[in-house]
Amino acid sequence: SWDINQQRGCTMKALIVDGEELIRLSLKEVISVSSNFQEILEAGSQHEFLARTASHDELSLIVVHPSSLGNDGADCLRLVQRLYPDAALVAMLDREGQNVGDLGNMVTVLRNASVGQMVTAIRRALKLPLDGFGSVSNQPSRPYSCLLYTSDAADEEDSVDLGGRRIIKKKKNKR
Question: What region does 106 belong to: left with phi over 0, alpha with psi -120 to 50, or beta?
C-alpha cells in the first residue's frame, strides 16, 4: 500500500508516540532518513496521541513505545490498529520478549536499538527494500567524518572551548 500511495503523490506522514521528548527528537531524525516523509508528528501522552489522531486521518507510519504510556499502552496499540489498519506499525520494546499483544502487521524493535536496527525495523514495517540501510551491517554505507573547526585565535591558545567544555591541547616537550 505504501508504494501505491507514493506513486499517487500522497503525503507520507509519520507519528511517534513516546513519553520521552529526547527519544521522540531522535526518532524524528531516524524516520527522516528511513524514507521520504513530508511530516513527522509527535505525541508524548495518550491525550496528545488522541489529539493527533483526531486531526490526521492518513498516517503511513506509527512508531509507539507502549510502556511510556503506562497502562494505556496496550489500548493505544489496539486503537492504532483500528484507526489506521493500513499504516506501518513499529512497537519499541523495553526488553526482549516483552508482550505487547498480538497485532499481525506490527514490527517490534528494542527501544535501545542502534540507529541501523531502528532504520531497518521502520523500512521493514513500510515493506521497503533494506539494502544499504543496515540490513547486512551496522556500518554506514558511506564514510562519515567529524571535523573540529577552530578559529585562528583558538590555535594561539592552550585550549579550545567547545560549547562549555574546554579541551586542553598538550604541548610537546622538546628534548
Answer: beta
pTM given for the model: 0.67
Number of residues in the chain: 175
Distances (CA, A) of 61 to 42, 57, 145: 12, 12, 31
pLDDT digit string, tens, across residues 71-107: 667 777 888 888 888 889 999 988 887 776 666 678 9
> How far is CA 175 from each of CA 24, 29, 49, 172, rounded to the nearest angstrom?
54, 50, 67, 9
Residues of the chain with pLDDT under 70: 1-10, 71-72, 100-104, 131-175
> 171-174 long-range contacts, Cβ below 8 Å, gap at least 24?
none
Q: Is 41 helix (H, G, I), strand (E, B) or coil?
A: strand
Strand partners, 95: none
d(CA 160, CA 166): 6
Instruction: Round to whole Å and give the CA distance between 59 and 41.
Output: 10
